[in-house]
TrEMBL record:
It comes from the Bacteria. Gene3D superfamilies: 6.10.140.1320. This is Twin transmembrane helix small protein. Signal peptide: none annotated. Residues 1-68 form the HIG1 domain. The lineage of its organism: Bacteria, Pseudomonadati, Pseudomonadota, Alphaproteobacteria, Rhodobacterales. Keywords: Membrane, Transmembrane, Transmembrane helix. It comes from Pacificitalea manganoxidans.
């Protein structure tokens, strides 16, 4: 499975989502002017990254169940 390019793409998308989430939690916990200016933007990045990851997971499951 680790040789499957689609699996690696899914794993990368999940890692990007995790990184954005941790960055957002870190800035939220620290507070300050940066958080006030960018918290909504970071949340949008996380939602977009998460949506891409979910779509890639669904594509992966579809192709693996259909024998592709």
């Amino acid at each position: 499975m680790t040789n499957d390019p689609l699996f690696l793409l899914v794993a990368l998308a999940m890692l990007v989502t995790l990184a954005v989430l941790l960055f957002g939690v870190g800035t939220f916990g620290r507070g300050g002017a940066f958080n006030r200016r960018n918290s909504n933007k970071i949340m949008r990045w996380r939602i977009i990254a998460q949506a891409v990851a979910v779509v890639l997971i669904l594509i992966f499951v579809f192709f693996r169940r259909s024998g592709g």
